[in-house]
Structure formats: structure tokens, C-alpha cells
Write a structure and sequence with these properties.
The chain has 6 helices and 18 strands. It is α+β, with helices and mostly antiparallel strands. The protein starts with 14 loop residues before the first helix and ends in a 9-residue tail after the last strand. It comes from Arabidopsis suecica.
């Protein structure tokens, strides 16, 4: 069975591509009749889609197709009609064609035309996209609009001199930047989407995430406050490179602004750093955002992978790798994040580092968060897929328990909330919770320099966490 056979003619200009085209044409299969054509070269089926050289698949994909062609040839020489049907059911080329078509459509929506592209040292391609053409403005309520002006900073805000500036991302080390009137967006590739469990699930948290131990594999070590109205939060988050042992697991550290119940009407705004091999294809810690207004069911996404978050900054790429990172018994680095509700327009703004506004989540995206949050949460989260029936060895934070302290365990420091009058105040009555403390734990404290803080994390599977 040959997938490319269903794609039809490939229009190319070079002799090399023409050769590939001819080889592919010799591997077509007539599904409507379910019988072999000429043994040397099949006729085209009716499922033809013409595409130009600028949409050619990657070389690795072509190698896969040629392998499938060889398998098809070997089947055709010996298989009976019943075996042909079984092979067809196994490879399901029509389903694969549909998936590839959906991937192309989704990439067209996500990857907007670039004014300039920048190659990052980690392999990312950063596209400088006109601000008004970013994915957010695909939303019906934002079409034709321009980004909002910067809001009023919460009273009591002080720059954190120890925290990262916006040049802490790997792509910016190239020395290039995006021009005025554009924003940097990490290019999404075909390979990124093929790693996802489904095209519709790409860039989304599929499972609901709760703040207790009934999370379908999601485990947390967090500090949280509840019981009043919250209009934002701020913290400095220690950055590490924890080990993530499965493509379908992740490890993250973030701030949550939460409203609604932990059922169908959950509203969240989230920002921090994460390692997600499925989403990014590597194990770099990356700056990320997320939002949902219905408990991760149909709304929201990571970063700029759907219409929602409006970016205003041309020097920070959401989803880009962070550098440098902390090391065990070595240098410690953290990022300062501030999320707050603009008292004038009601949008939720995000600030990175010492004063760099990244952008905002429009208020109309939400139900409960149109007014305020009912809980603020700080901390770490991992996904445990229980490989081999035992706990994962995916790490949280630094991969070390909270009791090891500074330089060894990961931390959050200077925990603050934004009050009803747009004032930053220290967190009070902070509660701490670890879903599985033998795997990942948390310890809080207060001092004059760090204010409210906690250490958290762990190695996952160990003698006390089988």
C-alpha cells in the first residue's frame, strides 16, 4: 500500500524531483476496485491532490513512503484478495491522507506570513510576523483590531534585579531581532503536529488538570491561596532542565490564575516554563502560556497555537527555549512572571522579567475570569504514564526533593498577589500540597530577602515511590 499514491501528481521542476515523482507514480493503488493494476506501474486513483514544490514533504517522510511502496510491491506479488484487504486495514492510507490534509490546513492557520525569519541555535525557526496578523486576530471578536495600549502596572511593583531579562532566550543569542511592528513566533512544523495524538489535540491539554490526587496521571507539588478575590499574581521561578522520560509526559513549573470549579466550567490562565517532548520535539525548558475557559475540553491552547493570547512584545518568543538554566550545586537562574487584570479594560496581562510586557488574554475569552480569580496556584506539575506499571522517572523541578534546599532543589520566591485595587501584596495563608510526597514534595518558608517562598520537586520513581 502506498500513501503517496493517493496524493497524485507532484509538480516539480528539477530532474531529481521528477525522478522521485516517477518512482511514486509506480506505487499507486486503485482502492475503489481493490485489485492490482499493471504489475510494473499502477494507474492514478481518483484521490489526487496536486501540490507544488513549496509544500513538498520532508525527506524523512519521503523515505517512509518509499519503504511503504516496497512493502506494497512485495504484498502484491503473493497476497490474496483477503490479505490485500487486511493490509489495507492495517495501513489505512485514506485515513493518513485525511490526517495530512488536516495538518496542512492547521499549519496554514498557525504559521502566518513572515516579514523575516531567524534561525535559532537550538534548531527553532522564529518568524517575525506583523503584529496585526498574529493568530489572535483570527478570533471573530478581534478581527480588524489592533493590540491594546499598555495597562497601568500594579502599585507596589518593584523590578527584580536578579531575574532574567528578555535576552534570556536561545533564539536571541543569534544577535538578530524582529523589526518594529512585528512579533516573534516559533514556527510550527509538520513533525510537531505528527507527534501529537491527534490534529485536533495539538497544542492542547487533553486531560483535565485538578488540584488533588485524582488527575489521571497529572501530579503536582504546589503552594496555593484561596478564599478571596484575586486580580493577579507574581513570582520568580527557578529554571532547570528536569529529565522527562517519555515523549508523552511533561514537566513544568508555572503560575495558575483560577476561577470556577474543577469541573466543566474551570477557567485558568497559566504561564511558566515547561519541558514537553511531544509539543516541541526536544528537552529544552521553554517559556510558555496556556488558557482555558471550559476545563481544557474545547477552548484554549499553549502559546500562540490558537486565537486567544494577543502578543505585543517583539523581543520575546513564547514557546522558545530559555538559557541559561540552573545546575546542581552551581549557578541558579530564575524568571520573574507577573499576571494581572487591567483595571480599566479587564484584560489579563503578562509580564516577563524586569518590565517586559509580553501581551494579554482578552477578557471575553473567559466566563468566571471576566471578573476575578478565586484561587492562585504556584508550583510544579508532571504527567505520569506509569511505564511498565511503575511510577515514571520524569523529574519535577530540579529532580531533587525540597529538603535539599538552595542550589539543589528548585524554588519559587517572592510570591505575591494583586488585590482588588491593583496593588501587589505578599501572599498570606499560603497552603502547600503534594499529591504524591514520596515522589515529589514541597516545603514553604518566609524570610526578609525572598519573602514567601518554597522549595519543591523530586525524582519520581525511587524506593519510596515504586
Amino acid at each position: 500500500m502506498c500513501l503517496i499514491g493517493l496524493l497524485g501528481d507532484v509538480s516539480v521542476t528539477s530532474r531529481r524531483r521528477t525522478t522521485i515523482q516517477n518512482r511514486i507514480k509506480c506505487c499507486l493503488f486503485d482502492h475503489s476496485r481493490r485489485k492490482q493494476q499493471d504489475s510494473r506501474c499502477f494507474h492514478h486513483s481518483s484521490h489526487q491532490v496536486s501540490f507544488n514544490s513549496d509544500t513538498m514533504f520532508s525527506s524523512s517522510f519521503l523515505r517512509l513512503i518509499l519503504l511503504l511502496c516496497l512493502l506494497s510491491s512485495s504484498f502484491s506479488s503473493t497476497a490474496s484478495s483477503s490479505n490485500s484487504i487486511a493490509a489495507d486495514q492495517t495501513l489505512r492510507p485514506q485515513e493518513e491522507l485525511l490526517k495530512l490534509k488536516l495538518i496542512r490546513q492547521e499549519l496554514d492557520k498557525i504559521n502566518k506570513p513572515a516579514v523575516k525569519t531567524i534561525q535559532s541555535p537550538d534548531g527553532d525557526v522564529i518568524a517575525c510576523v506583523s503584529t496585526h496578523q498574529q493568530p489572535a486576530f483570527d478570533h471573530p471578536l478581534l478581527q480588524g483590531q489592533r493590540p491594546m495600549d499598555p495597562p497601568e502596572i500594579p502599585e507596589g511593583y518593584k523590578k527584580d534585579d536578579e531575574s532574567y531579562e528578555e535576552d534570556s532566550q536561545l533564539w536571541s543569542l543569534s544577535g538578530e531581532s524582529c523589526p518594529e511592528g512585528t512579533i516573534p513566533i516559533r514556527r510550527t512544523t509538520e513533525q510537531d503536529m505528527l507527534r501529537a495524538s491527534s490534529v485536533s489535540g495539538f497544542g492542547r491539554k487533553i486531560r483535565r488538570v485538578r488540584r488533588d490526587s485524582t488527575n489521571n496521571g497529572h501530579e503536582h507539588a504546589v503552594g496555593y491561596v484561596t478564599g478571596r478575590q484575586y486580580y493577579g499574581a507574581k513570582a520568580s521561578i527557578n529554571v532547570w532542565s528536569p529529565r522527562v522520560t517519555s515523549q508523552y509526559e511533561f514537566s513544568l513549573s508555572q503560575i495558575w490564575v483560577i476561577a470556577g470549579s474543577f469541573t466543566h466550567d474551570l477557567n485558568t490562565i497559566e504561564a511558566g516554563w515547561q519541558i514537553s517532548p511531544e509539543l516541541y520535539g526536544d528537552t529544552y525548558p521553554r517559556f510558555f502560556t496556556y488558557w482555558t475557559s471550559d476545563a481544557y475540553r474545547t477552548t484554549g491552547c499553549y502559546n500562540l497555537l490558537c486565537s486567544g493570547f494577543v502578543q505585543t512584545n517583539r523581543r520575546i518568543a513564547i514557546g522558545a527555549a530559555i538559557s541559561p538554566r540552573s545546575s546542581y550545586k552551581g549557578g541558579q537562574f530564575d524568571i520573574s512572571l507577573l499576571i494581572w487584570k487591567d483595571p480599566k479594560h479587564g484584560h489579563w496581562w503578562l509580564q516577563f522579567g524586569s518590565g517586559a510586557l509580553v501581551g494579554y488574554w482578552p477578557a471575553f475569552l473567559f466566563t468566571h475570569l471576566k471578573q476575578h480569580g478565586s484561587m492562585i496556584q504556584f508550583g510544579g506539575e508532571i504527567v505520569n504514564n506509569r511505564p511498565g506499571g511503575s511510577h515514571t522517572t520524569t523529574q519535577m523541578g530540579s529532580g531533587h526533593f525540597a529538603g535539599e534546599g538552595f542550589g539543589k532543589a528548585s524554588y519559587f520566591r517572592n510570591l505575591q498577589i494583586v488585590d482588588w485595587d491593583n496593588t501587589l501584596i505578599p501572599v498570606s495563608n499560603l497552603k502547600i500540597l503534594a499529591d504524591h510526597p514520596n515522589c515529589y514534595d514541597i516545603r514553604g518558608g518566609t524570610n526578609r530577602v525572598w519573602g514567601n517562598y518554597f522549595y519543591y520537586g523530586g525524582p519520581g520513581k525511587n524506593p519510596r515511590c515504586p
